[in-house]
Amino acid sequence: MPKKLCFSLKLDRPTEAGKTETKFTVRFRNSPKAEWKWANDQLAVSDGSVYWQPVTVPKHDIGYYLTKQDPAIEAEQMAAQTPDTLLWSLTAPVDAAQGDVSTISQYRFGLATNFTRWFATTRLMTTWFRPRHGKHKFFTDNQDAVCIAFLRNDGLSVVVLGLSGIDDTGALFTYDADGYVVLKARNDGTQAAHAKVLVSVAPTFELANAAVMYEARSLSRAAQTDVMALEQQIQGMNLKDVDAQWLEEWYDGFGFCTWNALGQNLTEQKILDTLDEFKKDKIDITTLIIDDNWQSLDNEGQDQGRKGMTRFEADATAFPSGMKGLITKIKTQHPHIKRVAVWHTMLGYWGAISPTGELAKTYKTIKALNNSGWEWTCIAPEDIDRFYNDFYKFLQSCNVDGVKTDSQNSLDDLQHAPDRRTMQKSYQDAWILAGLRYLGARQIGCGSQVPAIVFHSMINTSTPRIVVRNSDDFFPDNDGSHPWHIFANAHNALMMQHLHILPDWDMFQTDHKWAAYHAAARCVSGGPIYITDAPGKHDKDLIGQMTAQTTRGTTVILRTERLGKASQAYIAYEEPKLLKIDTYNGMARTGTGVLGVFNVSQAALSELVGLVDFPGSEEGEYVVRSHTLERTSLPMRRGEKHAFVHAELDVGGYDILTAYPLKDLSASCGKIQVANLGLVGKMSGAAAIISSSLYFEDERAKVPSELAKRARVWTSLKALGTWGVWIDRLPELSVEDDLMAMMLGKPIPLHLAKISETDERVLEIDLAKAWKDGDYESSWSNEVAVELFIR
Length: 791
Hints:
791 residues, alpha+beta, TIM Barrel, Immunoglobulin-like, 8-stranded parallel beta sheet, 47 strands, globular, Aldolase_TIM, alpha-galactosidase activity, Glycosyl_hydrolases_36, carbohydrate metabolism, galactinol-sucrose galactosyltransferase activity
């Protein structure tokens, strides 16, 4: 491999008044005698810019950042909950709905000033969010935006957020031919009202974004009188099932969904046969999701959108044992499956409720038109609490543990204003409460990236976090969709990270060209992992990189504590830049920053990734480890010239880089540096670390004399696997004479410890083999405490 060179230079801040940008370009040549070439001609890259930020955010009025606003819009400056941030609350009047027709008023919200790039979270139909990017002129190509961010040429970020679902109003954004942001204010209510918008200015996108989302949470809570009623109902529930054990099995379990694997022609026997194939292949899943087409439906042979749910029980032909019989078989024959969830839509099925079925005879129904002109038979708002209580009580009686509730956007597809204002909140609240009451909040919201749902249900912190799908579907047969899928999820997470939910980046298949790419993205997402493999088609090695076995024999994923998100909000999909997804695990200064890097372009890319790109690496010294190369860098700290690692990725390439904090330990024979790597060989092996302590054991410690005056690495891990410890002096040490490892207080045989074949400074200890061969006792939890003594 050719030698990589890194060049640096020092730039002085311009002294000229008002100078905020320094442009630069690059010339290069391949040898001393070769001609100089311009990089922007040879490499299809543009000139660069350095934006010089002010020391503090200038205290300008909002008109300095968004000029020429419609005079009907009123702005009030507020105190932000983030440092060095300006914040405004803006309102625009909108008349009451006229009968069945909602009122929509449009206003010129303003022209963003002195910006160089913009990023927007827009709506893909009514179902999903998707990112849009641009330069110089704001233009979202006929897609309504929920949130817009502008990067100014003074380095400041301006974020504009429209609020919906707090009352009967909504605020979205479009554009006009001159590049103005245009506010679309909607009112479904019977009284004139004001649409609400928040605007913030801060030194970084993350600060500005957090400011508007924190304020949205406060406004949502203050404005919704039904929040208190919701909390009173929650306080009266028995929530003993919502505990740490539940979180592990639901959030952290390894899941299988039937959708892509088995399709809509779903039967009881197909499910059982598929689970038998998993058992034969020795793949243990802990969560099973029974997707579309288990329900009893009308209009056989017609389009799915024309079919309505007739009763709670499963289809008698395809599921002759009934739902309870099927779940009993599953949990008896496959005891490693701890949780089974079933799919349905928010209205029942794609075509809502059958007008002639048992449900229509039991509950009050209404007719509702959607925006496509289809008439749905729906449970009336005044009966929706009883419907969901009875439905989920039935599922509970069948030993169903959770639900995946799809097509939640149908509440936003309602055409008539009276239906929208009476059904949207009542359906959301009924679903949340029934799920909490009977299923321990084991719920997955799907098709629910709807502003009226986001700012009503998802921002409410009174209930446990539910899982929410974070993007459009995984499409296995659309080759071009896979890089975009990861890009869209990473950028949607910029908003979703501030909600009280756990984003789900959707299921995927391990026997697939893009399988490892998807797996890496799920491992840095901080959310759940579900596969949808066809029977017998698995990549067991890849599954092993995503999961680990606990001391109690269950399979868990290694989920980072912080949610993964795009680290550079303003970089567009079309640009020749690596997508970076950052996340973090553990406590500040002792935890690990994780960076997923993905090539989403159509050409090979090479970049220097700085330590500055890793969250939590502001202080101290670190080593950075590559998952794909299985190699670890030399120590580095921010500000040093060599504080970079090189990432070179082909089309479809990825890597997961992890920055581990180093600890200097003084031993009797000199100083050594040590880092706890967690479980090596796992994509998110750092997430296996629950706690860690690295120190020098002196003679006064209450330890055997042969262990005194040794460096000691102690850690508690979430699961078993190969524990890795980086030791700078490892090449000088003897595994037999200078090292001793223990697990749960008992020695680990030395033959299970070895120096890594790919990294001479990494010691690998096979905890899984030690557990299998040894006489260790499992505790009530999955945690396993291990320690290493270094002479």
